[in-house]
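This section describes the prediction task in plain terms. A model, or a person checking by hand, is given the sequence of a single protein chain and must write out its three-dimensional structure as a string of tokens. No templates, partner chains or ligands are provided. The sample shown here is typical of the held-out split.
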Amino acid sequence: KEKQKNEQLEGELENVKKEAEELQLCYKEQGEGCEEHQDKECGEHEVLDKPEFWGIRVEELSDFYDEIKENIEEYCQSHCRLGEGSKFCHVCSKGTECKYKDDHREVNCRSDVEAKGLKELEPNMHVVVAREVKPQTKESNKSFAVWKHPRGLKIDRFVTHWWGDKFGNFVETLKQALPLSVVVWVCSFALNQNQDIGTAIGDGLKSSPFAKALAEAVCQLVILGPECPVFKRSWCCYEL
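The expected answer:
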């Protein structure tokens, strides 16, 4: 029975993967019409009240990844992860000899290499936000997108994805699905990551930046990731 169940699950997963490939081709065809994309901006005083202008180009995300790739991967190779969700910390695999002991930035870190329950640290969005996005935008107290574009960029696509996927995979999927000039909403870059999420959401979900941006996007791009975890994430389900 267990074998039959596993075979059934594998078959379902294969079907989902095929559907994902078809969706990706569909988005790519739609995106080809955006090759002559012209950026739409708004005033600097208006942008903070218009989530649909908190966009960033696919090309900019690709360049950003190229800049941080080596450091992020080396950092993850030097650390393990302890705990789940928001209650996690990084553990230096070399203890007090960690080369990053004075450079952990916005990460809760410890040097107890004997701790139980250690897991491999993936170079995912959690790590990228903690080590790169937060420090780079802390002084401005703005989102990465607004920090880069004070007058904002009107979004074309709203991207729904899982933060646990490797950041490199995430960027590569965007590049395969969309032209580099397309402006996307990606929550980790659209929202001020140095701000409390409750403050960012505002008075309620229907009036949240997520809802406003999604309503203004040309369409929504869903990056399923390995084993389709987006369907198990509350925020992803809300966006869908």
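For orientation: DSSP finds nine helices and eight strands in the chain.
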